[in-house]
């Protein structure tokens, strides 16, 4: 019987190691960005959000209201900062509202 070594990882460390070794982080970041948008922007904005795409450090958000799109465009930097804070890392560099 093989001797058991005392190399233990907690679940979080093991999961992070698995994600890193299998290059899954970008996919998880895309999902996290969508979740943070919904959480941070609230139901009022989410009701007019028709599509969210995160690609190459740019968050593309499609809105069904041109008035809302115009209002949000004035606070892009604040929105980016708020979303990155919610994500816990500076993933989003630019926000494009469509």
Q: Kindly state the number of beta strands.
A: 3
Largest sheet: 3 strands, mixed
Spatial gap, N to C terminus: 62 Å
User: Helical segment tally?
Assistant: 4
- Give the strand content: 15-25%
Helix content: 40-55%
Name the average pLDDT: 86
Q: Can you walk through the features of this model?
A:
The protein has helices at residues 11-21, 25-46, 66-73, 76-87; strands at 49-55, 58-63, 94-97. By secondary structure, the chain is an alpha+beta fold. The protein has a single domain, classed as 2-Layer Sandwich (GMP Synthetase, Chain A, domain 3). A three-stranded mixed β-sheet has the order 1-2-3. Strand 1 and strand 2 form a beta hairpin. The longest helix is centred in the middle third of the chain and has 22 residues, at 25-46. The mean pLDDT is 86.
Set out the fold topology.
Layout: H1 11-21, H2 25-46, E1 49-55, E2 58-63, H3 66-73, H4 76-87, E3 94-97
Parallel strand pairs: 2-3
Antiparallel strand pairs: 1-2
Helix pairs in contact: 2-4
Short description:
With about 100 residues, the protein is of the alpha+beta class. Helices cover about 55% and strands about 15% of the residues. The protein has helices at about 10-20, 25-45, 65-75, 75-85; strands at about 50-55, 60-65, 95.
List the keywords.
98 residues; alpha+beta; GMP Synthetase, Chain A, domain 3; three-stranded mixed beta sheet; 4 helices; 3 strands; 54% helix; elongated
């Amino acid at each position: 019987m093989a001797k058991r070594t005392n190399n233990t990882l907690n679940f979080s460390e093991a999961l992070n190691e698995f994600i890193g070794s299998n290059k899954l982080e970008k996919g998880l970041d895309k999902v996290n960005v969508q979740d943070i948008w919904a959480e941070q922007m609230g139901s009022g904005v989410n009701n007019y959000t028709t599509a969210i795409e995160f690609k190459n450090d740019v968050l593309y958000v499609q809105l069904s209201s041109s008035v809302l799109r115009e209002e949000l465009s004035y606070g892009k930097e604040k929105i980016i900062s708020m979303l990155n804070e919610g994500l816990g890392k500076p993933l989003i560099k630019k926000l494009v509202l469509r």
